[in-house]
Write a structure and sequence with these properties.
Layout lengths: L6 H8 L14 H5 L9 H8 L3 H5 L2 H6 L5 H5 L6 H15 L9 H8 L2
Length: about 120
């Protein structure tokens, strides 16, 4: 099955101050040190987001919310990616897109969401 690139989603991710996955080296250290053992996070999930593969990101909602945000992955990341902030960004996006929740989002985030 072919993946569909969503340019609006890619632009939302690219222009967000809360998402910095472009520095990800895809080395796997994050997955190796994850206490929950979430292999998907963040390597593939962040790549999906950067490439604008919105459906793949939304299809991983459960994994996004399983993350403990303990930052163990972030402390060991050789690319200095702000993994916890990226996960928080994706949680906010999913909360809005999947669950229709905008409460607690900043004005900039609501503006971005309104234009996607």
């Amino acid at each position: 099955m072919a993946s569909r690139v969503d340019l609006a989603f890619a632009e939302t991710v690219a222009t967000s101050n809360g998402f910095d996955a472009w520095a990800c080296l895809n080395c796997g250290v994050c997955s190796a040190v994850c206490p929950v053992g979430i292999d998907l996070l963040p390597r593939r999930l962040f790549r999906y987001a950067v490439l604008g593969l919105k459906e793949e990101v939304l299809g991983q909602t459960e994994a996004v919310f399983q993350c403990l945000l303990c930052r163990l992955c972030e402390e060991n990341c050789p690319g200095n990616v702000h993994i916890a902030e990226n996960v928080r960004f994706l949680r906010g996006y999913i909360a809005s897109e999947v669950f229709g929740l905008d409460a607690g989002r900043g004005q900039e985030e609501r503006h971005v969401a309104a234009h996607t």
